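Database export, one record per block. Field names are fixed; values are copied verbatim from the stored entry.
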Amino acid sequence: MDAIKFVHDQMTNQPEFPEFRAGDNIVVSYKIIEGDKERIQDFRGDVIQIKGSGSTKTFTVRKMSSGVGVERIFPLVSPNIVGIKVLKYGKVRRKRLFYLRDLVGKKARIKERKFTSKK
C-alpha cells in the first residue's frame, strides 16, 4: 500500500508549468542524479511535438548542438523536472514539426507569435 501512496504523491505534487505548444522555444531545467550528487541542467530548444494526455503526457524538445540536432523526450509529470520557462512563442500551423529535422540554417527558423493586448 505504501508504493501506491508514493506514486500518488509523486503524480499529484507537480509544480505548475506555463502553457506551451509546438513551435515554442523553451528551457527545461531538470535534475540529474549522479551517485550521491545532484545538479540541475538546462536543455534549451524548440518543442517539436506534444503527445499523450494526463499523467502520460510527453513533449519532445529539439536543439542544435555543434551542428548536430539533439532531441530529448521529457515526461510532463516527472519529479526530475524542476522548471520550464517559455522564451519565445512560435507561430506554426502544425502540431508535429518533424520537417525541421531536414532543414538547416535560416530555413529551420520558426517565426515568433505576436500577442495583442486586450483593452
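Remark 1: The mean pLDDT is 87.
Remark 2: The first helix runs from residue 2 to 12.
End of record.
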